[in-house]
Amino acid sequence: MAITLTSLADLAAHGFDDIIDVRSPAEYAEDHLPGAISLPVLDDEERARIGTIYKQVSPFTARKLGAALVARNAARHLEGPLADRPGGWRPLVYCWRGGQRSGSFALIMGQIGWRVETLAGGYKSWRGLVVRAVYDTPVAAPVVVFDGNTGSAKTEVLNLLPGFGVQVIDLEGLARHRGSLFGNLGPQPSQKAFEGALAQVLAGLDSGRPVVVEAESSKIGECRIPPELWKAMTAAPRVTIAAPRPARAEYLARAYADMTADPARLAATLDLLKPLHPREVIEAWQALAASGEFAALAEGLMERHYDPRYGKHRERMPAPAAEIAADRLAPQDLPGIAERLAGAIRRL
Predict the structure, then answer these.
(1) Residues 180, 198: Cα–Cα separation, whole Å
(2) Which of 98, 164, 199, 256 can bridge 122 by disulfide, Cβ–Cβ 3.0-4.6 Å?
């Protein structure tokens, strides 16, 4: 039996015990339904080989060989990852279009006695809902942008706001990137996976309350902010945090400990700034990094690189709707800043 999803919320409402993606590992790695586990019935090489046979030999030969491969792979899954599933287990199985790959595996599972269902339209139907949400649908809740100079602890404060009754979208968390040259946190999600995660957050918003997002450029690392959210962000009122540069430098030295713990990575990142600054400036920054003077390095980067650039950008923008002054950005100071920010947002 195939189910049809008409909204992103439908998937959770069905309450499946497991969601199984039977596409190839490469397809799964690019994007998949939330919470899905990967049990491919054809691996990447097998899928490519069957596709070639389908085009160059005949569809019948491709289906016959494909069926044999699917049966062998299904047997491995039944004897391995699925060996402990009980008789009342209820999984959802999907492939690219809800066709032969998911149908074949679901048929085997149904014969065992499991209450298996497939997804009409497969992953393609889920992706269609995501595209509609992030490309075609205006953001339901009024958007407020949280701004401030580099090192103002914006992301940490943002993630404290739900504790004060404010809904947020953590774009940097979804993109797994801190949004600057120094912001790499490891592999980022694909654009499709980023959009899928964002679509689910958007679907869960209360349209009657504002939602706060951190000020970003249109790209966070390699992830592009989809057009409807970007349109809302550019038109949104801004609230800002204002902190002195020494406090921001201390915060950055603490927040970017992963970067400072890797001297080679830090030096290589500083070298990326060579086209933008004189050689002696880069050398001075490299010396501070080598000697472990990370707060001084952060202050120099803000003074010469980040603050001037952001200042020019903000000169073209309207005045912020509210400003939160913060003399210190130590961990114990951030909840109080978040509480004052929440109050300012409620007064907008």
Answers:
(1) 20
(2) 98
Quickly list DSSP for 196-255.
HHHHHHHHT--TTS-EEEE---SEETTEEPPHHHHHHHHHS-EEEEE--HHHHHHHHHHH
CA geometry: angle 266, 190, 36, nearest 5 deg: 120
Give the pLDDT confidence score for residue 184 in this predicted structure: 76
Q: In the block, which residue shows the tokens 């057009």?
A: 227
Residue type at 236 in one-letter notation = A
Helix, strand, coil fractions of the chain, as percent rounded to 5: 55, 10, 35
From the candidates 5, 95, 134, 215, which is the catalytic residue?
A: 95
Residue 333 CA to residue 337 CA, distance in Å, equals 7
Let me know: does 167 contact 141? Beta carbons within 8 Å.
yes
| Per-residue CA distances from 325 to 8, 322, 340 (Å) | 39, 10, 10
The CA distance from 102 to 118, in Å, is 7
Cα-based distances in Å from 160 to 9, 92, 168, 226, 278: 26, 35, 9, 25, 39
Low pLDDT (below 70) residues in the chain: none
Query: Which pLDDT score is estimated for 310?
Result: 80
